[in-house]
Amino acid sequence: MTGKLLAASDATEAPRQDPMLIAHLSDLHVPATGEPVPGAADVNAALHKAFAALQALSPRPDLVIVSGDVADAGRPRAYGRAAEMLRVLKRPIVAVPGNHDDPAGFACFMHEIGGESRIPAPELCSVRDFAALRVIGLSSKIPLTSAGGLDDAQLDWLDATLTEAPARPTLLVVHHPPFRCGVGYMDRIRLVDGAVRLECIVAAHPQVLAVLCGHHHRAMETQFGGRPCWVAPSLAYAVSLDLRPGGEGGFSREPASYRLLHYDGRRLVSHLAYVEGTGAARPFRRHDPAEADVPAIALASSDA
Known about the structure:
alpha/beta, 5-stranded mixed beta sheet, 15 strands
């Protein structure tokens, strides 16, 4: 009986397709120039390391998603530099605007990277179809504030777009996280307007696999509308984990990281990948035929 149960479990977990690997990046904050700013984080150096690590990935991602704050101050030169960085990856790009992004500059950036919507969509929103899934990008930028919002027109469009393709596995991308995370400063500038209705829409459409966000400069995970909601950390710099009531937080020197999503048609898994590794991985087992069945960790212990 146990064997039958295990066989049934294996069949249930069997992938439905070749895996799709998605790099979820966020908050690049690309400066307009390559010069370091005195007294500030060296964002250019951080991005250089990050994109070198992304180029070295094996296997390479099939798709790159950027969940907002592409440019730090919304300047045209910054978007040109961001496009150059992303083109080096030679992969399709899906991007959404963040609170630091300038609408006109971001629209030009989208055109430059070929990221425009393939079907009619609200301004700065997009729908992109790939072999395994669909990605819908939303625009949560509100002028003159760091907080975010989605108006009824955009949410009506999202609901209708999901209704038209109920069998199409879909990722939603929005810069501002639509939930309270406990970090006081970030909670005040989360997705405020439209968050309740967005959660209802997500819950009503089973094809939504996950909601991907940025903005908080930290990795976070929760459930939203019964689906995973994942926040990608920033490639530029981290925000401290300040959970004190009324805490203001600050910048942190934590290691830069990003998300790698693995989708096999049955299950979507999020991995946190660090830009700077710890050297070559040590194999679990040595490849000496005489010691083929001895774990490397056991051999290391005996050597000591």
